Amino acid sequence: MNLSPLLTNSTADEYARTVHAVVERIAGQVRDCDAPFSGTAREVLERKVTSVDLDGSPIGTDRALDEVDALFVQDAVWFHHPAYAAHLNCPVAIPAVAAEAVLAAVNTSVDTYDQSTVGTYMERHLIGWTARRIGFDGGAGVFTSGGTQSNLHALFLAREHALSVHGSGVLAAAERSTLQQRMLVLATEHSHFSVQKSALLLGLGEGAVICVPTDRDGRMDADALRLTLDVIERTGRIAMAVVATAGTTDRGCIDPLRGVADACDSARTWMHVDAAYGGGLLVSPTRRHLLDGIERAHSVTVDFHKSFFQPVSSSAILVREAADLARSGWHADYLNPDDADEPNQVDTSLQTTRRFDALKLWTTLRALGADRIGAMFDRVLDLTVQVHRIVEDAPDLHLLARTDLSTVLFRYQHGGMSDLEADRLVPVIRAAMLASGRALVAKTVVDGRPCLKLTLLNPDTTAEDVRGVLAIVRATGERGLDSLRSLDLAEDRALLASGAVAR
Ligand SMILES: *Cc1c(COP(=O)(O)O)cnc(C)c1O
Is 381 exposed, middle or buried (0-12, 13-18, 19+ CB in 10 A)? Predict the structure, then answer.
C-alpha cells in the first residue's frame, strides 16, 4: 500500500506531482523576490537548522519540502536579483535549469559508455565545440565540477608531462619525488588560489608557486616571465607550468596571452590558461579578440557556471593535444579495462561517477545559440564600463583598478574621512549590507588596502540598479562611520577614565 519513495515505473505520477509543486513554489519565490537576501541573522539561521532533529520521526515528502522552503529557500541568496553584486555568480538560463531537472531525474553518470551511452557523445561533441572556439583543432577535454578542479586537473597533466620530459621513462617513486621537488609553477599574485592548492596536492615542494611580476593593472609581465624562466633553467629547476589567467577573480584582468605563449614556447613549458571567469569571451560577438593567444595554450579552464549563465556545477578542462588528456586514465577490471573498445569518459576525468552537467550547456546552446550567450556577457561588460564611469565621477567613491571584464574595485571615502576610517569601514559596510540583505557586495584587498568589490554578471541589471546599490553603500557607510566614531569616542573616554592614557 505504501508507495515507494523511489522514482520507478510505479511512482512516475507521484514524481510529476512532487516536482511540479516544487517548481511552482520556486517560480513564486523568484517572482516575488524583492531583495537578494532576507537579512536573517546568522545565529537565527544556525539555530533554525540545528534544531531540526535528523533522527526525528519522518514527516513525509510534502512536509519535508515545506520545511525546505521555510528553512532554506526563504533565506537563500538570490544571484539573479539586480542588487546582487558580490561574487562570480550569474543568473541562470532557463533552458539550463530545465535540463538540470532532466539530468537529475535520469541520473546518468558520465563515466563508462555502458552507463552514459548517448550522453558520452553529447559531452564529447560539446567539448569539441568548446575546443574549436578556443582554437584547439584536435583538442579534447572533459566537464568538471568547477574551475578549482579544472585547474588541478590541468596542473596534474602538466606535472605528468614534465615527468615524462625530464624523467627516465618508467619512474621509480624516488625519482618521481626528486623531480617533483625541482618543479616550479609560475603564476602571478592575482592568480586563483586553486593554483597554490593544486601545487600542494600534487606534491610539489614548499614555495613551488612563483609569482611573476605584473603591470600596474595586475597583468603578468611577459618580459619578466621570460627572465624568470631563464633563471629557472640556469639553476637546474623545472618550470612545470605557467598559469596565465584570462580574467583574474578580483580585477578581471587578462594576462597577455600571446606574450606568455611566446615565453612558454621558447622555454618549452606547459602553458595553462585559467579562463574560469573570462571564458565567456569565447562566444562574445565583440570581444573575442581579448582571448587571442589562448589557442597556443596546452590546457584551458572554462567555468560555464560563471560567464555562460549555467547553474552550478558546470566547468571544463580542455587540452590542445588529445594525447595529453590520456594521462588521466586509470584502468580497473570492473569498469574500463585496458582492452575496452567503448569510449569511456572515466578515462579522461579525475572523477569516476560524474554528473551529466554537459546537458545544461547543450540545451542552452541549442535554445539560444552561442551569439546570444556571448551578447549577454557583452552586456555585462558594457554595464561595467558605465559603472566604472559612475564611480569615477562620484566625489565620495574611489575607483581603484581597471578591469577587462566586470569587476568594480572601489572605496567609499568622502572629504571628511581619513584613509584609516575608509579602510575600517570596508568590512563594516560589507557586513551591514549582508545583514540588511537589500544589496550584496564583496570585499577584498588592493595594493595592501581593503576595498569593496562589485562583480557584475547579470545582463538584465541596469546602471540605475547599480546606482541603487551604490546609494546603499553610501547610506550604510555613513551609518557605519557614525558608529565607528562614537565607539572610538566611548573607548577614548573609557581609557581616560581608567587612567591608561596620560592626560
Ligand atoms: C572562480 C575561479 C576559479 C575557481 O572556480 P570554481 O568553479 O569556483 O571552482 C578559478 N580561477 C578563476 C580565475 C576564477 O575566477
Answer: buried
- Distance (angstroms) between ligand 1 centre and the Cα of 148 equals 6
CA distance 116 to 102: 14
Four-way CATH pick for 108-368: 3.40.640.10, 3.40.50.150, 3.40.50.300, 2.40.50.140: 3.40.640.10
Nearest CA-CA partner of 310 in 262, 367, 248:
367
Domain residue limits, the chain: 108-368, 372-491
372-491: in CATH 3.90.1150.170: yes
Give yes or no for residue 495 having a pLDDT over 90.
no
Residue nearest to atom 15 of ligand 1 (CA): 249
Burial of 97 (0-12, 13-18, 19+ CB in 10 A): middle
Q: Which atom of ligand 1 is nearest to the CA of 303?
A: 7
The residue contributing the CA closest to ligand 1 atom 4 is 147
Closest atom of ligand 1 to 248 CA is: 13
* CA 249 – ligand 1 centroid, Å: 7
**Other CB atoms within 10 Å distance of the CB of residue 345:** 26
The mean pLDDT of the chain is 96
Q: Which of 121-125, 334-338, 491-495 has the highest mean pLDDT?
A: 121-125
Position in ligand 1 atom list of the atom nearest CA 194: 10
Least confident of 72-76, 166-170, 453-457: 166-170
* pLDDT attached to residue 501: 59
Distance 247 CA to ligand 1 centre (A): 10
pLDDT band at 274 (very low <50, low <70, confident <90, very high): very high
What pLDDT band is residue 228 in, cutting at 50, 70 and 90? very high
